[in-house]
Amino acid sequence: MEGETDLESRHRSVTGRIAAACARAGRAPDAVTLVAVTKTHPPGTADALVRLGQFDVGENKVQEAKAKAPQCDGRLRWHGIGHLQTNKVRDAVRLFCMIHSVDSLRLAEEIEKQAAAQRKRISVLLEVNVSGEGSKFGLKPEEMADVALAVNRLSHLTLRGLMTMPPYAEDPEAARPFFRRLAALRRDAEQRLGAPLPDLSMGMSGDFETAIEEGATLVRVGTALLGERRAWRTAAPEEG
Ligand SMILES: *Cc1c(COP(=O)(O)O)cnc(C)c1O
Predict the structure, then answer these.
(1) Which residues line ligand 1 (CB under 6 A)?
(2) pLDDT digits (tens, 9 = 90+) for 196-233
(3) Apex 157 CA angle, 83 and 86, nearest 5
């Protein structure tokens, strides 16, 4: 049995750790937004988060978000955090307030097309493969600034910053160089754009405090907040 008190104490613990990391880094406590990653958890979990004042939630699959969001409190803000196929963009634009995982100009252009059709402006982040791992999605660091310039010209997209996923490691310190690299890449892109990029989406359950020390403004936390992933499944077909 998972009572809401468990969720409440984990939420209190994570938000407390975020505040402490902000204090260590000399950053304001509201400089970081917690995105609760609800993937694999049932709609009731998202509603329970609302009762704790946690409105930002993240999903990595469009199909799952599409099935879940209509069953949930309408005040939730859904973030798209996983790799996005172009045939899912229409739903993604409808569902999400922000897409963290734009990893090609072609994808950005498809988001532009669908957002224009829906008369909607959507916030996006460019995902950068900072580690160069072949298994990871994301732009190459050296191509990111050119893509940022092009995306910045798309009128229905608001380019807010960058996102990354460092290689998996037990030790959060192992992620620090990758977070630092993303922060440096943001500074390069800001210079090229001549405009600020306010957001860095980096840090998950195992390393969000390190990410905050390196400048994260959005941390995507699943298991530390919600426990082990479940098997909440949709009737919809699997993502292909
Ligand atoms: C699942 C997921 C997370 C959260 O992972 P945890 O380790 O459970 O906190 C963050 N970002 C992305 C892109 C994810 O898919």
Answers:
(1) 37, 39, 60, 81-82, 165, 204-206, 220-224
(2) 999 999 999 999 999 999 999 999 999 999 998 888 77
(3) 35
